Here is the input.
Amino acid sequence: MEKSENMKLDRLSVAQMLQEHPIKNEQEGYRQRYLWVLDYVVRKYSTEDDWANAALTLYRSVLLDGKEPEHTERGLPKNLKVATATKFRAFKFFSYRYCLLADCIFIAAFSDREKGKKIFAELEALYQKRYRKKLREVFEFLYGAENSLKGISQLEYFRDCWTKNRAFQQQVPIKVLITATMSAGKSTLLNALAGKKVNKTQNEACTAKIHSIFNKPYEDGFSYEWDGALNLNAGLEDLMNDSVDNQAEYISVGTFFRSCFPETRRVWLIDTPGVNSADNVEHKIITEKLIRETDPDMVICVLNGQAIGTDDERKHLLFLKEQCRCRILFVINKVDSYRKNEDSIRQTLETTRKELEKVGFQSPCVVPVSAYAAFLAKQAYWGEPMEEEEADDMERLAHKLKRDAFRLDVLYPKESAGSDLPADCSEAEQLMLHSGILNLENMIYHIKEQ
Here is the structure.
């Protein structure tokens, strides 16, 4: 897969450290000077790095309400020591020296120890020798040394964030490729897995782009998007509208995946264009090329529970049978539309298994999900605003999926069951369980153990 020359896509799985940043409550003048130093470090050491420049923009947005640091029109001195001697005599470098070091490394050299050494040497020179041992301990911790950093109260939040980020980066990503014919609800399923709206859900054919969605280790309050340029504070409008300037074949998003599971796994969801758009044959070509060339841990083939067995679907299944060598999970979506006396979810699962065996799949794993119910449940659980129609839909689905004939979690393999929900769990938690999304997440997160 292509990527920006100045952007490593795995950085989209690095979470920010801004929600409880200790200098947010300082006076604006102090925050101006603090940002000035970060700006200096980025310009000197990472001027061509997309991540560093986007992170600096984000820091300005959060710490300065988007204002430019006051120095920018005056140029930059040759080194940081000159800068602090002339510009910042009143700047309390001593007060937040450890935070400043952590921010400089995080923005400009998170995965580059050699560059980090140069930045550290310049910062270290600002302080007297008696402070340098502790600074060195902090630096070594930032690059993986075991150290509790006890006694440095200003770094408690940073230490927790950094530890989670490092541990997360050390995980081998679970790559899951998701494919379907159009109108199967693939985008809604992606939104349900993320617990946020990160993909369009319209029935009309979307652009022929490969969407990759990277999980992050914790909720930092930001969604990232690379769509020709990197935006570390992408809003809903950014996520829903593709940039006309992006000439690459892909769009990548980084966000925290909301789930009831206490563990967080490093997951990479790869969304492919629908394969049965008569007006866009290019979609089918792109998807089939990606399936042939990607080496995922799992392929999720989403089937439309309202229209199983179409010619386009069968052709796509035959292609998967010939080209895919990893585990394939067949997920039947939209079964929440079934009526008790007219449809049977169990029968649909069994019939689909038999049809897949005729295609050539051995012991195919077929499971149901209500992606829409799962998405609504997560929106409610995490306090996201809902439109009146969505609230009505959630109430209806919560009532329906409680019934034995429509509980989807009981139709999954026993080993996919997660922890039992508490007896006093909320309606949203119950709906997440009954929708099947928690079982599906469990199967994804533990695919490497199966």
